Amino acid sequence: YAQQGDIYCQMANVYRYTDLNKEALGALRLAYQADSLSGNTRNVLYDIRDMGEIYQENNDFSKAKTLLSKGLKLAEKNKDSLQILFFHHELSILYYRTNNMAEAKYHITKCIDNIPQMPYDKNGLFVIALRIYTKTNDLLSAEKYRMLILKNGNIFAKQYAIENKIALQLSIKKDYQLKI
């Protein structure tokens, strides 16, 4: 079953990269079944996370929330600190996209508080943090993440940070002009 899970997961990746999300979900369900039968909890968690991401991409936030919350609970039960961070990150994006800023802040804070454990590229974390803090008008926190991105980010994250700063400055200028 272990190899089947890996094969289905790779099939899902190919489908996702070609925007065939329905097919990707089908392959991930099969990967989930195979990984569950083989007892590979780490891969089960990846399968759940990937399905949650696809539902989120399809704007099916209810299914995404159900899966990502389930995955977070399973990761916590298994004390899988890396997967816990992945699920908090995905949930912060989901809550940002559904305009639930209190939950978005809660989940991004869980990621940021444990960022040394995150061995991967942190651009996505910093960008969603910048988005959340900008949207909630926490300008000091937004500036902190903007500066981290400008110092350490990849070109796409830096582009977003610059665009965010320009939009913020235009917004402040507009507000100021309205008051005059």
Structural features, described:
There is one protein chain. The chain has helices spanning 2-17, 21-38, 41-57, 61-77, 81-97, 101-113, 123-135, 139-152, 155-179. It contains 9 helices and no strands. With 180 residues, the chain is mainly alpha-helical. 83% of the residues lie in helices and 0% in strands. The termini are far apart. The mean pLDDT is 92.
Write down the overall geometry.
elongated
Helix vs. strand class: mainly alpha
What is the H-and-E element order? Answer: HHHHHHHHH
**Most strands sheet:** none
Amino- and carboxy-terminal Cα gap: 69 Å
Beta-strand portion reads under 5%
Helix content: over 70%
Cα Rg:
18 Å
| pLDDT averaged residue by residue | 92
Number of extended strands: 0
Q: Which regions have little confidence, pLDDT < 50, spanning 5+ residues?
A: none
Report the total helices: 9
Give the tags.
0% strand; 9 helices; 180 residues; elongated; 83% helix
Ordered list of secondary-structure elements with their pairings:
Blueprint (H helix, E strand, L loop, with lengths): L1 H16 L3 H18 L2 H17 L3 H17 L3 H17 L3 H13 L9 H13 L3 H14 L2 H25 L1
Summarize the structure.
The protein has 180 residues and is an all-alpha fold. 83% of the residues lie in helices and 0% in strands.
